[in-house]
Amino acid sequence: MTLDELLAREAIRDLMARYTTAGDRLRIGEFVECFTADGVIESEHVPEDRAFRYQGHDAIRAWQERWLLKEGAIHGATFVRHHLSTSRIELIEPRTAQARTYWVAWTDIGPDHAGYYLDRFEKIDGAWLIAHRRVRLDWEAEGSLFKSAIGNTKA
Q: Which residues pair with 96 in a beta bridge?
């Protein structure tokens, strides 16, 4: 592994940490900045009423702003903490990479829901960004505070 590859992997790990922290804290500008201008975030393997797909900064920003506007009605949690664990980053070319990263979200009830991200990254103007994030849900607690959250953020 070369030094450039190590630096790329660390920059991608930092990007994933910034995304997670910004999302949990509803720091919308920081969240949107994690994506390419035409970046995509979408769900997979979830019930139709909880499926989502947003493309581009404007659409992602509008979705995140709805989390703030409806904050009390979104999920009922007083805190949300996504924890990333195993992450396999594959460098495809000098400016493209992909990753599979496992996550679990904690709320007031403890482990609330879990799954993994399937990501495609692009390096633009020296910065690694999310070009496409597929959010897959594997599990949710019986009393998950997030079961209705996505539906509550639809336009």
A: 93, 122
CATH at 57: 3.10.450.50
Q: What mean pLDDT is predicted for residues 96-123?
A: 97
Rounded mean pLDDT of 89-102?
97
32 within 8 A of 64, measured Cβ to Cβ: yes
∠ Cα 19 28 48 (to 5°): 75
Three-state secondary structure call for residue 3: helix
Dihedral (CA of 131, 15, 100, 67) sign: negative
Nearest to 129 by CA among 154, 85, 99: 99
Give me the number of domains the chain comprises.
Answer: 1
pLDDT at 73 over 60: no
CB atoms within 10 A of CB 1: 7
Residue position matching structure tokens 């679990």: 104
How far is the C-alpha of 14 from the C-alpha of 98, rounded, in Å?
14
Smallest CA-to-CA distance from 45 within 146, 143, 118 is with 118
